[in-house]
Amino acid sequence: MTISFVWFDLGYTLVYQEREKAFERFLLEEGIDLGIERIELAYHLADKLFMREYPGVLGREPSTFYPWYIGVLNHFLGLHFDLERQCRRLRELQRPPERAWRPFPEAARVLRELHGMAVGTGLISNWDASARTVLEDAGLLSLLDPVVVSSEVGAAKPDPEIFRIALERAGVPAERCLYVGDNYYDDVVGSAGAGMRSCLINRFGSRGVEEIGAATVLTSVGDVPAYLRSAVDTAYSYLEKRRQIR
């Protein structure tokens, strides 16, 4: 496999929010200590349920789904609260002193490492007008080119059109591209419709995505360079064996 360009999703692929810590603080105020690991898994499962059952909802204005989402989260944790009171308090606890979205610690390193491998990097994301500001604040904007955002181009994943726009801007063929994201339906299925290969970021292995078909699953964006090297080595070994047989 020869990959010359890697495209990335934005939320929970390159950047994240510290929402689990806010939820843990809320529970501690209520006298409940479940541990951050259990809360992180519950958020993961809620995310995957929404991605599977309610496509596009997580990309909307939070006020249109937030109480619904928190109710599902409570269900996974076996909790029951007055949702209006709980959501109000969580919003207060989630008000960040600086920026809401933070880069994963390995994100910038991965992009620079790919550049060192002569692999281009770009972004294809379903996001509002804040996408470039989020990238700039995270120190990632200069490492991604082009940046293709749904709110700017009028098409959104999994529609193959947003991927085609990105390919045209980058001037690379789909078969030379890899797409990396955390949403199987938007990212893996969507990029496949445009002829790209893909990797699914899923921190908890198969948890929450047990229903998916054959897909390459990585636990973190930090695994992408090693995956590319492994794939290239495998392809080289195969071609070398064919050459020797001939």
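(the above was protein one; protein two follows)
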Amino acid sequence: MKKTAILISTFLISSALQAGTVRIYAASSLDNAVTEIVRQYEKRHPQVKVVTVFGASSALARQIEAGAPGDIFFSADQDWMNYLVKKQKIARSQVKPLLTNQLVLISPLNILQKFQASPKFNFAQSFQGHLCTGQMESVPAGKYAKQSLTSLNWLKGLQRRIVGTDDVRATLAFVERGECTAGIVYKTDALQSKKVKITGIFPAYTHSLIVYPIALTQQGSKNADAVKLMRFMSQHTEAKNIYQHYGFKL
């Protein structure tokens, strides 16, 4: 009986420790905004502990598919959200398209001049060195970059000069350090750095609409604290103001 009581007590303590925890898996480009939103939320709800995991949407989606304990998934594109819906990790009814962004070209300060978004512009010859962006077959920023470069007929001229990174923040870091002469990232990421400049914005018609959908996972929908946090992140005026502060559009 004593052993059983100890086991029950241990179980109850463990459950209590987990009861107020919410885990957010969010695209790396959302790092600044989501971190601030979480900080504000925890001030209002000190009993809730929010754990954030940032990375490429592709990597995060595969982690959730493999059983990672994510309650909220905040993706940088619709494809990886759809992936988890198909894998039955997220109910389609839970998905809410929330933010939009822009795709930009960046370079270290005083390196590149403004580019002309036209197939007639010889982009490949406008700079020396490498172009960094997310992995073009999986990372959302890289997928959008590939679409734009293809649309403008610039991709072929960049063969062997493109460096694929794990996520958009890695691309930013490569350009900040001068390891890449140019990089393709989201406007919101470029605005956070004092070491790079925006040398052009890729026209919206050259790539799919950049949409950030957010959703509760199947696990999260059963977590009352996750449901409340999801509501705050997607509906509360304070959260919306923070997104806009970091350059996102609602």
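Reviewer note on protein two: Residues 1-18 have pLDDT under 50 and may be disordered.
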